[in-house]
Amino acid sequence: MDAFSTVIRVASHEQHTEAETSTFMSDLLGGRLGVDAYTRYTEQLWFVYRALEDAAESLKDDAVAGPFIRPELMRVAEIERDLAHLVGPDWRENAVALPATRAYADRVAQCAAEWPGGYVAHHYTRYLGDLSGGQIIRDKAERTWGFERKGDGVRFYVFADISNPAAFKRTYRELLDAIAADDLEKQRIIDECKRAFDFNGAVFRELGEQFPLSA
Ligand code: HEM
Fold this sequence. Notes:
Layout: H1 4-11, H2 13-20, H3 23-29, H4 35-54, H5 56-59, H6 76-86, H7 91-94, H8 99-114, H9 116-131, H10 134-145, H11 165-177, H12 183-210
Helix pairs in contact: 1-12, 2-12, 4-6, 4-8, 4-12, 8-9, 8-12, 9-12
The structure holds protoporphyrin IX containing FE.
């Protein structure tokens, strides 16, 4: 097998293009949706990242998943600040997980509890994406809805404790390459990564149904 970081990137490339060009993402980034759509999307992220990060404590010493658990990646507190800004102090009462989001978060929690390799697949799919395309989304969101640059509303996308994202991603890929897994387990992780992209696609679809373009 080639370097695992390469294999997993290549294996998910097609689905990445699908996610990028999904109707909801294109409409959101094309500035065709209101801030309410962005808010609903951010709420969905809150459910997913809680599942990812609630597991951090129990997985931090795990041989497979432990090396990936890094405090500078943690997003829940940032999402909560964004939602307080976007919705107001009562944001928790308004936050509802769409069915696709529920299924996604449940699967992350299940992997965290039962299968560290699967958890890594979900970790990779979200955090490496946030460090990459997330920065494009932040820039668009700031311009479209007038958030302060790197301020409230887009803090989810700001990794204040990662000064050099490119270097961080290189280190992350080295962790992937060194993962304590044999080839069969690596293949299973790749399959779970594809599932992770599917879950994201399903959330986008349900959001797209909630926010159709009237035109
Ligand atoms: C419009 C939305 C998106 C844009 C513009 C975008 C853009 C990008 C770009 C430019 C990169 C390459 C960064 C690099 O080579 O270092 C990247 C990487 C990545 N993105 Fe996205 N992305 C989007 C949505 C998503 C979504 C929805 C997911 C999954 C939830 C995702 C997951 C990833 C992952 C895992 C990588 C790392 C690939 C690797 O190097 O192994 N992206 N994205």
